[in-house]
Amino acid sequence: MIEFYNSKTRQKEKFQPLKKEVGLYTCGPTVYDYAHIGNLKAYIFEDVLKRVLQDNGYKVKHVMNITDVGHLVSDDDTGEDKVEKKAKEKSMDAWELTRLYTEEFKKDIKKLNIKDPDIFVKATETIKEQIKLIKTLEEKGFTYEIEDGIYFDTSKLDNYGKMANLDQREAGKRIEMKDKKNPTDFALWKFSRPGENRQMEWDSPWGVGFPGWHTECVVMAEKNLGIPFDIHCGGIDHVEIHHPNEIAQSKAAFGKNPANFWMHSEFLTVEGEKMSKSKGNFYTLKDIIKNYTPLAYRYLILNSHYRSKVNFSTEAMSGAENSLKKMKERVINLGNEKGDPSSKYKDKFLKAVNNDLNTPQALKVTWNLLKDKDLNDSVKLATVIDFDKVLGLDLNKEVEIPKKVKELAEKREEYREDKKYEKADNLRSKINDLGYDIEDVKDGYKLKKI
Ligand code: AMP
Ligand code: ZN
Predict the structure, then answer these.
(1) Are 35 and 105 contacting, i.e. CB atoms less than 8 angstroms apart?
(2) Does residue 37 line the site of ligand 1, with CB under 6 A?
(3) Which CATH number does the domain housing residue 104 bear?
(4) Whole-number Å distance between alpha carbons of 114 and 49
């Protein structure tokens, strides 16, 4: 049985796909800059979710959008468009800018062993469909026009924002009212302002402008998965605004909540504060891989539950790097012979990940497997390779043996063939000094990390 925490009902629920193939939509990056590693935490969580579903035998159709227009500096539809603002600052073509950072995003996720979605879809590719959706909402009486755009009237919908804690939202940060009818109303179409010189803008029945961010995702999900689909994911901040606004449009236009399950991952923090571009307390993957391997970051994230905050620090990263290195060394030392996976450990592993993606527990099971004295190496190897389909930590990929060690081993082999055993022994101790052990096997030798 698979259980996931569903933000829609605020409880763990049994997962049952609607159709044979699981439909998964994950809110993708806004490509105005490099992703920071907090953003990447969300994509690691979604990748694990997909891998767990696949490990349970489901086929998954995964759609991720690329937000290349319409995401304003503030999620409450105020401020400049992030892409236009950055393009201006860099004196760059906005299309070129988004192409560049989309490519950088794809490189980042590859480094973290995050599998590509089946479909990447850019917001700018679906403008026609977005206008159509807004038209439908207009015809059904859910929209009104004010000076800066077309807005969704949230008071027209029963239960608007059920998933969000609206009281908190009202009391706290919210919101610049302008001429809006209700504080929670949001922009569907924004007009280009005179003198703004936007690079990305389109004609529409209401005037030249661009779509609101919340509309993009509804359209891209509906177009590629149909609604309702199974699971919709994003970062925890989407519970308050972006996702209630997606649900509102979908309910108004199609009469249904677009997804059965809504799953959200908690924030990456730095000294207890959310990592964010605006606070300036962020690191990109490029920054951290100067000192650590990318998969050490994946290990760090897997070592906490996705609904827990992770505090990023150099100590935490070094700890993760160390643990991953040790785990990989243990796997390398298992040799090459693969037996049948242990069903006892596989059951424990599945029990962990199928329980709302308990990856810290799954790592514990992996450690216990590797330390189990009663299992032989070939069984351990087969089992760990199987676990790695979900963990994605490249556990059975060789830790690179340094060139120097390999050369010494080759030389030692020559001495042994010439029966110069003393010289061979000297080289063995040199190899040991470098942290490796050499074992003589039937047709040669095997190097192991000590
Ligand atoms: P964006 O590219 O700004 O649209 O954000 C991409 C994803 O990263 C969204 O799902 C956000 O909720 C998520 N996110 C943003 N900041 C953080 C953070 N500090 N930790 C974890 N996830 C985050
Ligand atoms: Zn979205």
Answers:
(1) yes
(2) no
(3) 3.40.50.620
(4) 11
| 334 in the same domain as 237 | no
Per-residue confidence (pLDDT) for residue 177, from 0 to 100: 72
d(CA 46, CA 351): 19
Hey, whose CA ends up nearest to atom 3 of ligand 1?
Answer: 30
List Cβ neighbours of 246 (8 Å cut-off, separation of 6 or more): 214, 217, 218, 221, 232, 258
Ligand 2 centroid to residue 243 C-alpha, Å: 7
Pairwise CA distance, residues 323 & 133, whole Å:
49
Ranges of beta strands (E only) in 18-111 are 21-26, 59-66, 72-74, 78-81
Helix/strand/coil for 247: helix
Q: How far is the CA of 395 from the centre of ligand 2 (A)?
A: 33
Q: Of 39, 110, 34, 37, which is closest to residue 316 (Cα–Cα)?
A: 37
Instruction: Measure CA 255 to chain center.
Output: 30
The mean pLDDT values, 10 residues at a time, for the chain of 450 residues are 96 97 97 96 98 98 94 76 89 93 96 97 96 98 95 93 70 62 92 88 95 94 97 96 95 96 97 91 93 95 98 96 95 91 98 98 98 96 97 84 86 93 94 85 79
Q: Does residue 155 share a domain with residue 24?
A: yes
Ligand nearest to the CA of residue 283, numbered in listed order? 1
Total structural domains within the chain = 3
Query: 122 has which bridge partners?
Result: 66
Cβ of 234 closer than 6 Å to ligand 1, yes or no, is: yes
**Ligand 2 centroid, distance to 89 Cα (angstroms):** 25
Domain that includes residue 242, residue range: 19-274
User: In whole angstroms, what is the distance from residue 259 CA to residue 8 CA?
Assistant: 9
Give distance in angstroms: CA of 213 to centre of ligand 1.
Answer: 14
Q: How far is CA 283 from CA 138, 275, 393, 410, in A?
A: 42, 8, 21, 42
Q: How many Å apart are CA 145 and CA 437, to the nearest integer?
A: 74
At residue 194, the pLDDT reads: 86
98 Cβ closer than 6 Å to some ligand 1 atom: no
Structural domain ending residue among the three candidates 274, 300, 335? 274
Q: Which of 26, 65, 66, 237 to mutate to test the pocket of ligand 1 (most atoms within 8 A of CB)?
A: 237
Give the CA angle between residues 83, 86, 89 to the nearest 5°: 150
182: Cβ–Cβ under 8 A, 6 or more apart, which residues?
A: 153, 154, 155
Give the orientation angle of helix 213-225 with respect to helix 127-139, to 10 degrees: 100
Q: What is the pLDDT of residue 196?
A: 83
User: Is 398 part of any domain?
Assistant: no
